[in-house]
Amino acid sequence: MTLPPHNQGAEYAVLGSILFEPSIFWRVEDVLSGADFFDPLHADVFGACRELLHAGRAVTVTSVAEALSKNEAFVKTGGEPWLETLLDYSLPPFEAADSAGVIARASQKRRLMCAARDLLAAAEIDADEALEAHEAALEAVRERQAAHMAVESCADGDIFSEREGETLIPSGFGSLDDEIRGFERGALSIIAARPGVGKTAFSIVVAANIAERETVGFLSLDMQGKVIRQRLACYLHWRQPGHRRSPMVADLKEPGKVSASDREELTALLKGPTGKRILVNDRGGQNTRTVAGQIRAWHRHCRKHGLPPLGAVFIDHIAKVAPAQKAGSLYEKTSYAANELLDVAKQNPNTAIIALCQLNRDTEKATRRPIISDLRDSGKVEEDASLVLLLHREDMRWALIAKNEAATPEEVAQAKRELLRCKGNLEVIIGKNRNGEQGAKTLWHNMAFNAVRDLRERMEEVI
């Protein structure tokens, strides 16, 4: 037997969110009533929360359990311990409101189905009366829908972030943050580069910088999670004072290359605060819906384990994310994915969504600096993004020539001279910046250690 339209997960999520943070009730009350819940017990829990709050009393697992102590269905289901399990489904306020909408829409479908059944039964007796009654039933459904639709004016909203006014999250590179001011929360940012330039390495360093204060999610759709952990461990080891003889990333892939003491230290670093605050998912076949689900899971994990809030989510890379819409070409696929990821970002107003992106193949052999139109299969990527950073390494070109056995002695000599000038320079070109000016900043890198540093800090260290 097929059950009428409902969403048990959404009902769990709304109730768990109210139990975790009672103020969420006032966000969902305008769009949801107890009668909208499919499960009668869920309706009773929602009603108990409503009565407690309207009476000016605290909503807790204990107070709600006490209010429902004579409810047979509640006692039979498990009582207070069952209520505690709902806390695992709690969501941030914005997502809880979305789940309330899901419940209300399912309730509306059930009401329409009931009206259709009543019309079918009444039509067999008197068609004219059935039509009139059906019109009245439909009008009642429309009125209920209008009553539950949220209405908000500009005067009702807040212009500041819930996190002490911090709308932007710094990259951790002072000179770059002077220009971009940081990655915008609740928005989509793009980090793009040609293959091999180091966009994943750069992103891991930024993630480690952000993880000094907040939790970071890393969706690695291009590399194994183990590789991400190896890169992070090498960078954490490298950035320690006095540790300039750190293992290289490649060393971790060869047994015996890393000493026992270094292995122990690398493992310990990953088990430290930064490692615990960077959450990795390397599962393939992701789409925008599973990305949104993973972000919700990370939010719950942070609350459950006492971690700082989820500040940023990196997606490596955008072309590996399938959109919910059907796409006929790779161009459409990437465009739809970008647009849907922007919606995901809006649903997470305190989290910056940072997607990595490839540059077009026809620029891989080019010597010029990349521009925003080089984004591969970009579609609306640059339009939807709040910030677009293009990474460029001139030393890659000269290093290839210097090692090219087919190059002339003059070409090799020139390449070596040019390498002396630009080796270790990572240029970050600001192709789009809604919070500042366009421009470029140069950082220092050593990709062997997955290390990136602000150039002025590097120069101060050398001096």
Structure commentary:
With 463 residues, the protein is α/β, with parallel strands linked by helices. The chain has 2 domains: 8-156, DNAb Helicase, Chain A (Orthogonal Bundle); 168-392 and 424-462, P-loop containing nucleotide triphosphate hydrolases (Rossmann fold, 3-Layer(aba) Sandwich), CATH 3.40.50.300. The chain contains 19 helices and 11 strands. The chain has helices at residues 8-20, 24-28, 40-54, 61-67, 72-77, 80-86, 93-123, 127-148, 174-180, 199-210, 225-238, 260-270, 273-276, 288-304, 330-346, 381-384, 394-402, 409-422, 455-462, and strands spanning 168-169, 183-184, 188-193, 215-220, 278-281, 310-316, 352-358, 387-392, 425-433, 439-446, 451-454. A 9-stranded mixed beta sheet has the order 5-4-6-7-3-8-9-10-11, sandwiched between helices. It has a two-stranded antiparallel ribbon with strand order 1-2. A hairpin with a 4-residue loop joins β10 and β11. The longest helix has 31 residues, at 93-123. The protein starts with 7 loop residues before the first helix and ends with a helix. The mean pLDDT is 82.
